[in-house]
Amino acid sequence: MITVDSLTRRYAGFTAVDNVSFTAQPGRVTGFLGPNGAGKSTTMRVMVGLTVPSSGTATINGARFADLPNPGLEVGVLLDASAQHAGRTGREILGVAADTMGLPRTRVDEMLELVSLTQTEAKRRVRNYSLGMRQRLGIATALLGDPRVLILDEPANGLDPAGIRWMRDLLRGYANQGGTVLLSSHLLHEIEVIADDLVVIGNGRIVASGTKEELLAAAGTLARSTSPRDLAHALEQAGIPSTLAGDGSVRTDADPARVGAVALAAGIPLTELRSAEGAGLEDMFLSLTADTQREGVAA
Ligand SMILES: Nc1ncnc2c1ncn2[C@@H]1O[C@H](COP(=O)(O)OP(=O)(O)OP(=O)(O)O)[C@@H](O)[C@H]1O
Questions:
Q1: Which atom of ligand 1 approaches the CA of 9 most closely?
Q2: For 96-141, how does the pLDDT look when each residue is reduced to its tens digit (9 = 90+)?
Q3: Do domains 2-211 and 221-275 have the same CATH topology?
Q4: 296: exposed, middle or buried (C-beta count within 10 Å: 0-12, 13-18, 19+)?
């Protein structure tokens, strides 16, 4: 479990993280979202002892990172995959980390296999790695000590589509076995698929937190039909307000079963009927962080 309590970090009159409190629970994947510069990395850096808080605390399973005797066995960290020693080979990096944690070298090969880095690639210097390979190596390092907590800043960055799917399955399996996962990402679709809980930060402050279901409950239903106007009209006749979006989809707060029943009764064929969660997360993110968006997209 990760516990952040009243955490504040100031830089020369500027407050990067402002009285932030949240928890990331075991058995769950917690998505940490926010616009550029919102304070995600700073919060994560405090968690792993790289940044000193101005006030407040961040603890891993009840202890501050600095007080963990062998931190790699308790918490796996991937903050900046490009920060790895560029002159070393992937195998050397994992070997040094294994030695530091007191782990057998056999763990290195297990991790290389887990993240699908070949023996040839493992002998290459990290400066010659692609971004995705660095990311895989970073994940291998994070998992080396078989920790119960993972803190990952943009772990999907640079991964190819198969890599993203692999990462998703890996983190899901890890949480299902009782692990705690905190991950930041700008890939809202990824977060939508994988996260159980969400923490949204804007301008250093928490603007929303809770389960994904709670936060997206207001998302409603999205339906598509070859005749969307007729569908909107039929819904209106049934007392269900809806909006017709520019992309031809019909959105309503009613649940999908009700929308389907109205369409069936009106003889309107549907080509799609689902919870509007996907767009819901993006809408929610943009509206919650509207004040802090550079682009003012949701203003
Ligand atoms: N060492 C530092 N000195 C001064 N300001 C800093 C320092 N580190 C971070 N900041 C500022 O703190 C704010 C939060 O930065 P942070 O990296 O935590 O954001 P983020 O949410 O991770 O953003 P991104 O999505 O772009 O990675 C930014 O305005 C940043 O410039």
A1: 12
A2: 999 999 999 999 999 999 999 999 999 999 999 998 999 999 999 9
A3: no
A4: exposed
